[in-house]
Amino acid sequence: MNIDKKYLPLLFGIAIAIGVFIGGKLNFTDSSDRLFSTNSKKDKLNRLIDYIDYDYVDDVNTDSIVDVTVNGILENLDPHSVYIPKEDLQRVTENMKGDFVGIGVSFYTLRDSIAVIRSVEGGPSDKAGIKGGDRIIMANGDSLFGKYLKNDEIVKKLKGPIDSKVNLKVYRKGEPKLLNFTVKRSNIPIKSVDAAYMLSKDLGYIKINRFAETTYKEFKVGINKLKKLGATKMVLDLRDNPGGFLGIAEQIADEFLENDKLILFTKNKSGAIEKSYATNKGDFETGEVYVLINENSASASEIVAGALQDNDKGTIVGRRSYGKGLVQREMELGDGSAIRLTVSRYYTPTGRSIQRSYDHGVEDYYDDYYERLDSGELLDSAKILVADSLKFTTPKGKIVYGGGGIIPDVFVPLDSSMQNETLNFLYRRGYVGNFIFEELEKDRSVYKNMTKQDFIDNFKIGEDLVFAFEDFINTKTDSKITFVAYHDEVKQYLKAALGDQLYGDGAFEEIFNEMDIMIEEVMKLSEHY
Questions:
Q1: Integer angstrom CA distances of residue 499 from 149, 365, 440
Q2: What φ, ψ does residue 282 adopt, rounded to 5°?
Q3: Cα–Cα dist 107/105, whole Å
């Protein structure tokens, strides 16, 4: 067959296009009988979305359908593979990054206006002169008050590019006119180390609330400070710490372990093993350490506790930890959203996996706390279920178990007084903080010349404040709560919240820990060491 030469370029182009199309379908790891097949599973999902987009009788937001589909797929994998919608990704990323760009104030909405609780020490608002109790009325000409103003809208107006400036109008009690402040936005730390202070002349205390990018640096500052104050023993409080970056947990474990000690190893789908060892950089390798854990200590917290326990370093104190032994990697989906997909399992140095079973579904998995409560495990260590098939031995002969969390060396039961569900609920929902702020508003001058240490050592909460708080709660919630049996505990919450709003810098933990039975147990252990 003869072909006119003038059509050759066209035919050549068509051939290239067909080749590109076929090449795009090839998977060079497939067998030859699959080379020209399509991925029917992916095609099925794509076709379904297209049918809904073009043929369904009503207009439908297919983006929301895709979100539901992604969530549905991930729910069939494991409890920790999760979808992060694009509207949440920035907040999640900032939380794990350890800082954000803003003006550096904590606030809450009081009677339709923004009330500053406290300026971040050394932050832009603090430097500009904004104080606790100030009301931010306007930002760059936009009003920041009104009944329907939401917190996320407020945050958007106060945030902005780094080094950009925002002009604020502020109402301050006692001032005849609104005050004008120009604040230069900068990086504001989201602290992951809540407190670092001395429990006794040689016992330091440091609390980590999560393992973010900045945690190791914060931890080093805290531990160096405590060593200068004379700490030769250390309490590492990981209670209620949900975890975070694996690499940060490794760095912190390294501070306590000698060179070449195994911290953990991970194993992926193909069976590839990666081991992580301690280096010679640790600053607390010879000191005694006590790690505090509870049923909400998870993931990276368990890595640290497991690494120390399996290397016979220090003492693990508290209750059985959460039981998360899976490692996730964040992967972008191309539209501003992302998934955190489980890519491997981690194992403690003795070889145990502490991942709880999720064979009975996500709902059952997350109801584990109530199962532990009902079984009596949180009050009696004898109720902790262990399997002999998951028994491991540390180098010094200590028996440890896998299969569902880190079991502590020294068990401390749930404190029925300080863990009172009503008090915990009121604190978590902000009622305690809001009440304290309104009390402070009546007369802040009372605390003007009082130092943080003087407040901690000498200030007493009166019975009248407990009754006032009771009235506040009953007015806000339309309930009939009474604190007759919990006056001492309520005073502790109120003083801790007051200290936090006045001083920050770990004041809450330092006050609250005074009635903490786990801290009391560590003090006894430390004295006998």
A1: 29, 37, 11
A2: -65, 135
A3: 6
What's the rounded Cα separation, in Å, for the pair 299 and 294? Answer: 12
Report which of 137, 129, 167, 131 is spatially closest to residue 154, judged by C-alpha positions.
137
Rounded Cα distance, 135 and 15, in Å:
70
pTM: 0.85
Query: Residue 518 in contact with residue 317, Cβ under 8 Å?
Result: yes
Q: Which residue has the tokens 């200290």?
A: 499
Minimal CA–CA distance to 414: which of 510, 238, 295? 295
**Which tokens go with 62?**
């297919």
At 204-262, the pLDDT tens digits run 999 999 999 999 999 999 999 999 999 999 999 999 999 999 999 999 999 999 999 99
* Domains recognised in the chain with CATH numbers: 99-189 (2.30.42.10), 193-414 (3.90.226.10), 421-525 (no CATH)
CB 260 within 8 A of CB 277: yes
- In 3D, which of 310, 306, 289 has the Cα closest to residue 398? 310
Other C-beta atoms within 10 Å of 254: how many? 24
